[in-house]
Design a protein that fits this description.
Structural class: alpha/beta
Number of strands: 11
Strand content: 15-25%
Low-confidence stretches: 190-195
Mean pLDDT: 92
Shape: globular
Largest sheet: 6 strands, mixed
Radius of gyration: 22 Å
Order of helices and strands: EEEHHEHEEHEEEHHHHHHHEHEH
Helix content: 40-55%
Distance between the termini: 16 Å
Length: 330
């Protein structure tokens, strides 16, 4: 009665763990710090995963009135896990977890019931509720990933902020900053129906006496991708209020994401096949109707596609993959 599965969503910001019973009900949740070992290191990443599992299994054990739960399957969906070296590192995490003395778990794992994948797959499975469909992730970064019933997959994007991430919050923010700089230099005129240019918006946001000091903000120590991406709402707000340059940036974002989605759909689904496209990430909650425009563009390009909001969190998707490894479909 205490047999369960564990699903883990490990990202660059935080790590979430859920414990599911065989019916797919959540028995426990746990949250810890980041576990992308590429950015925080192997030791810190493992500590976060272990902590999230400990918290989730403690809650599950208490709910079941037992000293420990028996774990038959586990899925670790982690950011940055794409190459053989990554799989080797995560397998090392699993071995450490099996010998951990801090987790109230009785391990009953077979190799076939340990699933290691990247976070795009668990976002798809959690969002759609099954491992078939397309997920369009547009947050700090961006990626579109799809999988069909035969297990064939296609990814577009996910190349990081230097090589890609078009359609991400980072891309929106940088595009806005560059437009503002061109206006400041006199190389491009920023027009706005509200008489407030992007240049003025950034100046006001940072309380600068002159836009020229924007470099002190952007290039300051400790500022990176996440901090710059956090400026995307300034461009979004400008677009929502009619700023024409901001609107063009948002339109480009929609076009790039819709094109990527079309490529994924056509790569893994037959022309007459229906598929669901789940949208996840902060960009989809923008004020400038990005998601509505995206939905219209996707349906126009791929008439059999249906754009949906996530049904479950990625961590739950990891749990579902664990259940599927046991041959169970809740």
């Amino acid at each position: 009665m205490n047999s369960c599965v564990i699903g883990i969503d490990g990202g660059a910001t935080k790590t979430l763990c859920v414990v599911l019973n065989h019916q797919g009900q959540i028995l426990g949740r746990g949250e810890a710090d980041a576990s992308n070992y590429h950015t925080v290191g192997i030791k810190t990443a493992f500590a976060s995963i272990e902590s999230a599992i400990r918290l989730a299994t403690q809650e599950a054990s208490a709910k079941l009135s037992m000293e420990s739960v028996t774990v038959e399957a586990m899925c670790l969906g982690l950011a940055g896990v794409a190459r053989p070296r990554d799989l080797e590192v995560v397998r090392g995490f699993v071995l450490q977890l099996l010998s951990s003395q801090t987790i109230p778990v009785t391990w009953a794992l077979l190799p076939s019931n340990v699933v290691i994948c990247d976070d795009a797959l668990i976002a798809l499975v959690g969002g759609v509720g099954k491992p078939v469909g397309v997920v369009a992730i547009a947050g700090t970064g961006s990626i579109v990933f799809g999988r069909n019933a035969q297990g064939n997959t296609k990814r577009v994007g996910g190349w990081g902020h230097i090589l890609g991430d078009v359609g991400s919050a980072y891309h929106i923010a940088v595009s806005g900053l560059r437009a503002a700089m061109k206006a400041y230099d006199g190389c491009e005129t920023v027009t706005s129906l509200t008489a407030a240019s992007l240049q003025e918006r950034f100046t006001t946001h940072f309380n600068l006496s002159n836009f020229n000091y924007i470099t002190d903000i952007i290039y300051q120590p400790g500022w990176g991708v996440k901090e710059i991406a956090s400026l995307a709402p300034i461009v979004d707000q400008a677009a929502a209020e009619g700023d024409q340059v901001a609107i063009s940036i948002i339109e480009d974002t929609v076009n790039q994401l819709a094109k990527a989605t079309q490529v994924v759909i056509e790569s893994v689904f037959a022309p007459d096949s229906a598929c669901e496209v789940v949208t996840t990430g902060s960009v989809w909650h923008a004020l400038s109707s990005i998601r509505q425009q995206f939905e219209s563009s996707v349906v126009m390009l791929s008439p059999n596609a249906k754009v949906i909001w996530p049904r479950h969190q990625p961590a739950y998707g990891a749990g579902l993959l664990g259940l599927l490894s046991l041959g169970k479909r809740p």
